[in-house]
Amino acid sequence: MDIFLQQLINGLTLGSIYGLIAIGYTMVFGIIGMVNFAHGDVFMVSAFIGLICVLLLTTVIGISSIFLILAITLVVAMVFTGLVSWAIERVAYRPLRGSFRLAPMISAIGMSIFLSNFVQVAQGPRNKPLPPMVPDVIVLMERNGYQVTLAYKQIIIMAVTAGLLFGFWWLVQKTPLGRAQRACEQDRKMAALLGINVDRTISLTFVIGAALAAVAGVMYLMYYGVVNFADGFVPGVKAFTAAVLGGIGSLPGAVLGGLLIGLIETFWSAYFSIEYKDVAAFSILVVVLIFMPQGLLGRPEVEKV
Amino acid sequence: MAEAASPSPAPKSWDLNPLLKVDHLSMRFGGLVAVGDVSFRAGRGEVTAVIGPNGAGKTTVFNCITGFYKPSTGRLALMQGCPATDAELDALTCGGLASARTAAGTTYLLERLADHKVSSRAKVARTFQNIRLFAGMTVLENLLVAQHMSLTQAGLINPAALLNLPSWRRQQKQAVDHALYWLDKIALTARADDPAGDLPYGDQRRLEIARAMCTRPALLCLDEPAAGLNPRESLELNTLLLAIRAEHETSILLIEHDMSVVMGISDHVVVLEYGRKIADGTPQEVRNDPKVIASYLGVEDEEEVEAVAGVHA
Amino acid sequence: MADHRSDLWEREDTPPEGAPAPQPAPPAPPAEAVLLPALKDAVLTGIITGLLLLPLVGFRATESGSGPLTLTYRFGLVSVFAGLVMVLRLVLNLTVWRPGRPPRAKSAALAGVSQRIAPALKPAFFAFALLYPFIAIVFSGSLSLSRYWVDLGIYILTYVMLGWGLNIVVGLAGLLDLGYVAFYAVGAYTFALLSSSVPLNAFFDAHVAEGFWASWSFWVCLPVAGLLAGLWGIILGFPVLRLRGDYLAIVTLAFGEIIRLVLINWVSLTNGGAGISSIPPITFFGVPFNSGDDGFAAIFGLDYNSMHRMIFLYFVILGLAALTALATIRLRSMPVGRAWEALREDEIACRSLGINTTLTKLTAFATGAMFGGFAGAFFAVRVRFVSPESFTFMESAVILAIVVLGGMGSQIGVASAAILLIGGMELLRNLSFLKADFLFGSDFDPSLYRMLIFGFAMVAVMVWRPRGLVANRMPTIFLKERKAVSGALVKEGHG
C-alpha cells in the first residue's frame, strides 16, 4: 500500500510531463494530419534553454528566490522554444504542405536528427547536472521505516500542469484563435475561403504546442536535475504513445493518455522490471495503434471510397 | 420471403433471371441511416441503373455490393451460372458460409466476403466516382494490374516468373493481348505507353472501365461513369456499355445522373431517395412515376450544384 | 484527415483536361522595388536566426571538473552565423527568389544527354564496382595500402544493399518502415549466435568434421539469416500492415526499438550490451584466409596477406547487392511487383481489382526484410562483433535517407545516394584541414557534424527535391516505346 501510494504520486508527476508534450503532438496532428516527429527534440531543446536560463539567473544575475527563477525560466523557455518551433514549421514543414503524404514525416525525422545533434555540437555530449532546486518533501505517512513522500517539486509540476491545461482549454474553446483552429481542423480550404488566415493558425498551433513542451522541459529539468542531448527521443515517443492512447486529435485524451502512460511506466518499474519499462511503453504504442487506433477519446475514422 | 415485388402482374425479366439479389439492405453510420431496407434485383445480362438525388445512398449501396462497406443488415446474393431459389438462399444464409456451389452455378453472399474477394471470387468489378487510376503507371500497366488474379494463380511469387521461363512469357503475352483487346475497344491503343495520369479526363473514365473489364467480371458496377463528360464522350460511353452488354457475359449496374445515359441504355431503373427505394421498373415506368418526378427529376438545378460539390467529397 | 487535403492538392495540380498553357511571365519589377523588400526580409531573417541561436549557441553550460556548471559566452559566433544567414538570404532574394524571375526551363540538351547515357549507366556502374578493388590497389600503390579504400567500398556497398532492400518496402510498395534496422539486427544476431554456439560447434565437430562449423557457418547461416529475417518481417508485418502510412511508420519504429531493447536486456542469450565477439571469420567456401598450409594464400600460390580476406568480403557484398538488385528488377515486372507499385498509387483501387492488399504488402515487407537479414549476416562476419549499439533508430534513419535521397523506387538513384551520403560522411571525417588554426582550431572534430549535416540534408531534400535524385519512374512493360513517367504523377506512400 505504501509503495502503491508512492508510485501513484510519482506516476502522476511523470504523467503530467508526458501529457504536456502529448498535447503538442495531438494539436499538430489534428490540424495538419502529420506526426511531428521532431516534437520530442523540441522538448529536449526547451529543457536546455531552461538550463541556460537557470544558470544565467543563479550564477550571473544572482537571484535567490527559487520561485522567481522558475517563473522567469518558464517564460523564457516558452518564448524561445515557441520561436524554434515556429522556425521549424516555417522552414521544414510549410513548403511541403502540397507534397506527397510521407514528405512532412521524413522532413520531421530529419529535423529531429538535426536538433539533437545541434544540441550535442553546441552544448557538448555529456549530461548537464544542476544542483537540486526544490529539495523539500512532505512526509505523508511513515510505516516500518518506509516513508511515502510528496515532494514540493511534484506539487509544482502537477499544479502548473493543471493550471496551464485550464488556460489552454479556455484558449481553444472560447477564443477566436481556438475557433480558427477547429475550423482548419475540419476543412482547411473552406476555412481559408471564409477568411481565416490558415498559415498563421497553423504557425500558432506549432508555437502553442512548443510552449507546452517547454513547460514540460523545464519541469523535467527541475524534477530530474539533469538533461542530455539524447533526452528527446524516448520521452517523445512516450508522449506520442500517450497522444495515441488518449485518441489523437483529442486534447483531454492527450492528458489522460499522458497520465496513464506515466502511471503504467512507474508501476511497471516498481512491480515488474525496470529494464523493460521502455519496452512496455513501446508495446502499448504498438498494441493501441493496431487494436484501437482511435484511442480512448478519439473519433473513429471512416474510410472514404 | 414475403418480398413485395413489382405491382404489375407480368413478371419482370430481372425477377425471373436475377444475377444479383439485394434483400433488405440497410447501412447505418452511427445514428445516420444512409440506406434503409432497400431490396432490388439486377437482371442477368441487363443494364440496371440506380438513380436518385445526391445523398440518396446510391454510392453506399455500391460500396456494400463491392465489399468496401459491410452492411448493417441485409443480404446481397450474387448468383453465377443459374439463379438460386429463395429456399436455397435462405439455407445458405442460415448456414453461415459465404458461398455455395451447385451444379447450376455458384452463389456468393457478398456481405460475407472480404473486399478483395468480392472482386476475385464473386467477380464484381467497379469504377469510382472520383477516378482511381494508378496515375503514375502506364495505361498498359494499369490493365495488367487488373489481371493480377489470373496471373498469380501459380502463386504470388511464381518461380517460373522469377526466372522468366518461356511458360511464364506465354502467360504474360496472353495478358498483354487481353489488355490490347480492351485498349482497342476504348480506342487508346496509341497511348498504351503513356502514364494514365496524363490522359484527358474522358479517356481516364473509359480506361477505368476497361481496367475493370480486364478482371473478366460477371457484374460491372459503374459509379457515375458519365460525370464530367461532354455530350460526344457521353455518347461514346453509351456505345461502349452497350457493346459490353452485347458481346460479354457481363451485367452492368450503374449510378448515373445523366438521364440520356440512363434512359438510353438501361433495361431496369431503381430509384432511391433518402436511403429508401421509391420506384423500380423499366425506364418508361419510372419516367412516368409521379413520385419520381416529384422527388428527383424536378430538382435538376440544385442537383447540378450538388454534383459539382460532390466531386471533392 | 489529411486524405482530403492531399486529394484537393492533387486535383489542383493536375487539371483533368490537359495541362494549362504556361502563363506569360509578368514584367520584371524595377530594381528599387526589389532591393528594399529583399533587404528588409534579409535583415529580419538575420535577426530571427540570431534569436534562435542565442540561447544554445550564445551560451554554453560548461562542465568544470566535478563542480557545478558554469556559463561560457559565444556571442561572436551567434553574430557571425546571423550575418552569414542574412547575406545568404539577401543574395538569394536578389537572384533565385527574385520576384518576376522567369522559372528556369529544363534544358532540352541536358535531358537528351541523360536519355542517351541512361542505358549505359548501369553496366558502367557495375563494371566500376567489379574493378574497384583493383583500381584501389593500383592507385594506393600496394595491396596493403589499399585497405582503407577497400574497406570503404565494403562499407558503402553494405548501405547500397540495405538501401535496395528498403527500397522494395518504401520505394515500391510505399510503406514507410522506420524499423528496418530490426531485420538487419535479426540477420546479424542469427549468424552471430549460431556461429558462436558451443553446442552447434561440438555437434558438427562430432558428426561432420573437425572445425566444420567454424569454416562453413557463414555459408550455412547466410540463407538462414535471410529467411529468419523474412519470417520476422511476416510476424511483425502481419498485424501492422493495415495501418495508415504514418501510423505504420511509428509502429515499425517501435518494433525496431523493442527488438533493440530486448537484445540489450536479454543478457543470457545475447550477452546484452557487451555484444558477441567470438564470431568466426569468413572463409573462401571452407578455405580459411590464414597463413597456414591449407590457407587461401598457400592453395592459390600467393603470398599471405590479410587483404585477401578483405577483397573477398568486398566481392561477397557486391554479389549480395547484385542479387538484391536482380531480384528487385525481376519482381518489379512480375504481377506481385506491379501490385506493389499499384498499392503505392491507390490502395482502394487495388482492392476493387481483387488484389489481397494485406498479402501483397506482406510480401513486400518480408522480401525487404530478407535482404536486410542477408546484409545483417554479412555485417556480422565482416566486423566479427555484434552489439545492440549497431542497430539504433539512427541506422534506420540513415537507410531511409538513402532511399529518399535516391528517389524512391529507383535503384540507380539509391546506389548513388548511398555513395554520396556514406562516402560524404566518411569524407567529412577526413577533412583535417578544417582543424587548421585559422579555421576552427585543433579541437574541432568534423565527424561530430556528420549527423547534423545529415539531418539537415534530409530536410533540404524534402523541401527542394522531394522526388530525390532520380525522380522518374521506368515502366515495367511497354508496347512500343519505354518512356519514363514523370515523378509528378507518381505517388509516394499510401494512406
How would you describe what is shown here?
The complex is a heterotrimer of chains A (305), B (313) and C (495). Chain A is mainly alpha-helical. Chain A has 11 helices and 4 strands. The longest helix of chain A is centred in the first third of the chain and has 31 residues, at 2-32. The termini of chain A are far apart. By secondary structure, chain B is an alpha/beta fold. Chain B has 2 domains: 1-123 and 218-313, Rossmann fold (3-Layer(aba) Sandwich); 133-215, no CATH class. Chain B is 39% helix and 22% strand. Chain B contains 14 helices and 11 strands. Chain B has helices at residues 13-16, 58-65, 86-95, 115-120, 139-146, 148-151, 159-162, 166-185, 201-213, 231-247, 259-265, 283-287, 290-295, 300-310, and strands at residues 18-29, 32-43, 47-51, 73-79, 99-101, 106-109, 124-126, 219-223, 251-255, 268-273, 276-281. The model of chain B is unreliable at 1-6 and 301-313 (pLDDT under 50). Chain C has 495 residues and is mostly helical. In chain C, strands 1-2 form a two-stranded antiparallel sheet. Classes of the chains: A mainly alpha (305), B alpha/beta (313), C mainly alpha (495). At the A-C interface, α1, α2, α3, α4 and β1 of A face α1, α2, β1, α9 and α16 of C.
